[in-house]
Each structure stands twice: as C-alpha cells, then as structure tokens.
Amino acid sequence: MVDMTTTAHSATPDAPTSAATGGPAVVVSDLRQHYGDFEAVRGVSFEIRPGELFALLGTNGAGKTTTIETLEGFRRPSSGTVRVFGEDPHGQPAAIRERTNAVLQGSGLMDDLTVRETVDLARDLAARPRGAGEVLDMVSLTDRRAVAVRQLSGGQKRRLDLALALVTTPEVLYLDEPTTGMDPEARIETWRIISDLKKDGVAILLTTHYLEEAERLADRLAIMHRGQVRVEGTLAGVLEGWGDRVAFAVPEDVGTDDLPALEGADLAVETRDQALWATYTVRRGDVADRAHHAVGALLAWAGERRTTLRHLQVRAPPWRTSSSASPTAPPTWSDPAPPLTDRQPPRQPRRPPSQEPPP
Amino acid sequence: MSPTTAPTAPTARPSLHWMRRTLRLTRTEFTLFVRYKTAWWILSMPVLLLVLTSQMPATEVLDGVSSSELTMAGMLGVTGVFVGVGHASNVFAARRESLVLKRLRVSGVPPLVIFGAATAVIVLFSLAVAVVMVGLIALMLGETPGDPLMLAVAVALNAAVMTLVGLLVTPYVRNAESAQMVSVLPMMVLLFMGGVYFPVDLLPSGVRHVVELLPVAPTAQLAQAAYTGYDVFGGQAGARRPASSACGWRRCPRWG
What is the pLDDT of residues B68-109, one digit of tens each? Predict the structure, then answer.
C-alpha cells in the first residue's frame, strides 16, 4: 500500500545497482517553500543517486518547478534542507555549478544567434565541454546549425536546450518538462538520450506531465499535488497502490451492513455533511477495467434492491492512460482534482421514505 | 534524430578563470549588439544630439573656449547615458523575460561575468561613438582633444557607471518594452541635470550640490578638462566632491 498522505521518502530500494555503490548526489529533506502566505512546497523529501532518474509528476502549480529551482540554487528553502553533492546549492557555489545543469521549462535562448553560435557559447563557458558536432548530432540539429534560433520550431528549440545542458557534461541534470512541444519521434529519441545519460551515471531529476515518459525513464517517481508528495515509489507500485475509487451516497433504505463486498476492493463508509457515503477502493485487477467491473457489480446490486446509487462517482488514478483521444498524444497528468477523501460531498437533505422517488 | 551512441567521455579541461569566461561572453555580446537594430538607433542618439548642440549660439566662457565647444566636450563624457541606461536596461529586461539570464546561471556562469561582458561591450561601443563625435567636433570647430587618454577614461568610466544605472532600472520594469519607456526618465534627468547643458558653477548652490551627486557630473567635467585642457574642477580640492560621488555610485550593484 502506498502512503497517500505522508511526504517523506528515505530508502531507495529500486535504485540501479550501479548507484548503490555511491551516496546520493541529491538529497532533499522536508523542503518547504513559501511565497508570502502561500506554501508552494510542503515538506517534500527525496534522494537521487548517480545513474538514477527520479521523476516528479503533477499538475501545473503542484510545486515541481519550485522544487527544481531550489535545487538549482535560485531559492533558499523556507525550511528543510537541500543538498547537492553534500553542499547547499543556494547561491550556486563553485563546487556545484560546474557539475550540474538544467533543461528549463522555457527555452532561455538568444534568438539572434545561430544554433552553432549558441552551442559554441555554451562550450566556451563550460569547464569540460563536449564537442559541438557531437552534441548537435545527438539532438539531430546538425543540418540546422547555421539557422538563427528565432527560426527554429518549438520542438527544435527544446532539442537545442537539451544540447546546451549536455555540452557541460553534468553529473546532476534537472529536466523540467524537457519534451513538451516535441513531436513523437523527437520525444522518443530524447528519451533514448536521457537513458544513455543514466547509463553514464548522471543523476537526473525529471518533471513531466507525461505518465509514459516517467514509465519509460524513471527508476522511481513521486506524484505531487498542492505542494505535497502524495504518492512515491516505482510506477508499478504507484499504480497498484493508488487504486480506482467508486463512491456514492448510501440510500436511506440501505444499512451499512447491507452494502455488498466486492472482490479486490476495500469498502469505507463515512458520514460527511450529514450524508452517509460508501467508497470502494479497487486495487486488484487490470488497471484498465477494474473500475468498470466494480461499477457493473454495484449497479447490478442496486438493480436487485430496486434502489438508486445517488451521486455516483468513479475516480481513476489522476492520469489519463493510453486511451487518449489522439493516438500520438502521450498519457498525461489529468486536470487537478483532489482525491475523493478530500472532497466535500454535495448536501443531500434527508427525506422521509414516503417522499423518495420510485427507483 | 541520428542513431548516435551514448555520449562519449568529456575532454578533460581545467576550470575556467572568470576573466576568460567574461571575454568569451563579451565576444557573444558584441555579436548580439551588432545584430540588434535598436542598439544602433540608441548609439546614434548622442551623435544626433551633438549635431543639434553645434547649432547653439556660442559665447566665450573660458579663454579661447566657446560655450558650444564646452558643451560638446561635456557630451563626450555622457555618451554612456544613452548606451548604458537605454541599452543595458532593455537588454537585461529582455533576457530576464526570455530566461536567457537563468539559462546562463544554470550553466554555471556567475552574475559578475554576465554583467562584466555586457559592460565591456557598452564601454567599447561608447568609445567608438565618442571617436565619431570627436571627428565631428574637429570638423565643425577645428579643435581636437588636448588629452585623448583622459577623454577615453572619462567615456569609459561614464559608460561603466551608466550600465550600472541601467541594471538598477530593470527590477522596476516588467519587460523590455517597459524598460525602453521607463529608462527614458533617468536618461533625461542625467543628461540635462549632469552639468553638460547647464554649467554646474552657474547653478544655485543647493541645486549644484545635488547635480554634483549625479554620476554624470564627474565624467562630463573630466571630458571637458580632457578636451579643453582647462582645470574645470578647481584644483584637487574641487575634484574631491565629484570623485566621492563617482565612488559612491560604484556601490550601485549592492543596491540592485
């Protein structure tokens, strides 16, 4: 069972074997970040070892970028500690800044330079640069080297941004939604490059909206929501532990003991806002259709009892799966919505049985 | 994308000295300045203003030195007001907006290197436009600078300090467009209250003390002294106040 409420993570049992030999390159411990009264990050903890990719998933505003900016040294933590190679990254001390790099959410490119000039500048400023030709070849921009940056497409700019991060041969790499705007082919190739970096021992922190991206690349992942890590672990563990939830307001003529037991589902009954609610959390069965079977069984049960499941809600884990509308669109994190247990149910005034509508 | 292999091991290289980084970034800044049309427009402004100033009625204010010559010489010392305040605020705001500054920072480039490279290019182009202005003054008045080295120092100092002022403007502007608008105010104040158009000695004492505190007054007077060969400061004692003012403005980055 995955912890849905705590924010901490300590052990890294799923880290690659190569990483087990060294200590973590990045350690974040109970990080909190405030913007005035607003708390953007609330007690986030994780570690990343060399050769490991840790993915942060979440909706916009979940706190992913704030976490990365703190690691990059742009923000001092409001509380908690952040360490990169054992050093506080705030202020970008020399011991850290030449060993880390990032792909920003926005490009951060000089439009008046050509692609080659941009890469050459990054090489000029790096202590241990890769060859310009090698880097351009890696991101397939060799034939665009003489083109001004302003003339590149959005996806090409993202690839150039990745190239700039690769030029400096970082040991820790922060990737803030690196494949946003890329076409499917470029996205797959970028995943290959990132996988190669992992094999080279680079510790990588990836933020993404794409579940498939995390599935392909991440050794471990965490799902952030409203500044907190809600779920953390391997992808399989997260999918298994989150579960689909089916909830409804319990009809007045049904007692809690009368509610059916569903195979592979846990039942919780609680009173909220003067109404009785039943929530089934389905964790077993095929991820794609386990909610379907639970709903089918409940509707059959309600039909037999000639009653109605009021305010019936089905909540899958908060991401869309491969049934996305477009076959080329990757699965993405869905619209922000709190888990069912966080929601206030609609007010449902109790009526005497005589006034109940017929089923 | 090409079916390349895993990234190869990097070439071993010693850590770069900040001066080498500054020079390398300066080279790129130079390229960007040349390709930026707005920068050329800003650069032409002091030249245009010099031509307009040459039409002012001339009266002899020092032995053999006319008021227009003194004003034009002073203008050389405030060339950086245009390029420094106007261009620097515009560029820094634009780069902050487009995340270029952040990109440089995450690549390990210290802020001092970023600022140093921008300043170096602004100083360079201020000196270049000063050469053009000296040529125009020589053509119009037949006078050449008495001390070219001192004049170059005045121009360079002014450009460096004005780049700091341009940097100070950027926290108060949202983007490059507003930087272009907002920077006009300090530009005008510094240009017309810096002792170039209104000789400091002729101003009421209260106003004079304020004007001497502005960062343009010392460099304008330095340029006038370099061009005409006169001691416009009034000896060592007279130079103390503008020198203090200039030293005080060097602390701009700490305020920014």
Answer: 888 888 888 888 899 999 999 999 999 999 899 988 988 888
A199 CB within 8 Å of a chain B CB: yes
Q: Which bin fits B224, alpha (ψ -120 to 50), beta or left (φ > 0)?
A: alpha
Q: What angle do CA A235, A236, A237 make, to 5 degrees?
A: 90
Distances (CA, A) of A14 to A20, A22, A86, A232: 10, 15, 22, 12
The verdict on a CB contact (< 8 Å) between B108 and A125 is yes
Q: For residue A270, which amino acid is it?
A: E
Among candidates B7, B16, B102 on the partner chain, residue whose Cβ is nearest the Cβ of A104: B102
Q: Is the ipTM of this complex over 0.90?
A: no
Instruction: Average the pLDDT over each of A81-85, A136-140, B216-220 and give the range with the smallest value.
Output: B216-220
Of A166, A196, A162, A167, the closest CA to residue A178 belongs to A162
Contact A112 B35 (CB under 8 A): yes
- Write out residues 107-126 of A within 8 Å (CB-CB) of B: 107-113, 117, 121-122, 124-126
E-assigned strand segments in chain B: 60-62, 65-66
Kindly identify which residue of chain A lies nearest to residue B97, measuring between CA atoms.
A108
3-state helix, strand, coil split of chain A in percent (to 5) is 30, 25, 45
Q: What is the pLDDT of residue B249?
A: 62
| Cβ pair B78, B111 in contact under 8 A | no
Which pLDDT tens digit goes with each residue over A72-112? 988 999 999 999 998 899 877 777 888 899 998 887 899 99
């810096």: which residue's tokens?
Answer: B194
Contact A17, A52 (CB under 8 A): no
CB of B103 within 8 Å of any CB in chain A? yes
Distance from CA of A132 to the nearest CA of B (A): 12
Q: Read out DSSP for A48-98?
A: E-TT-EEEEEE-TTSSHHHHHHHHHTSS--SEEEEEETTB--TT--HHHHT
H helical segments located in B36-110: 37-53, 67-76, 79-80, 88-97, 100-106
Flag the least confident range among A244-258, B87-101, B196-210. Answer: B196-210
| A92/B31 CB distance under 8 A | no
Instruction: State which residue of chain A sits closest to B2, comparing Cα positions.
Output: A140
Rounded CA-CA distance B42/B53 in Å is 17
Helix (H, G, I), strand (E, B) or coil at A233: strand
Distance CA A198, CA A195 (A): 5
Count how many Cα atoms sit within 13 Å of the Cα of residue B245 in the half-sphere of its side chain. 22
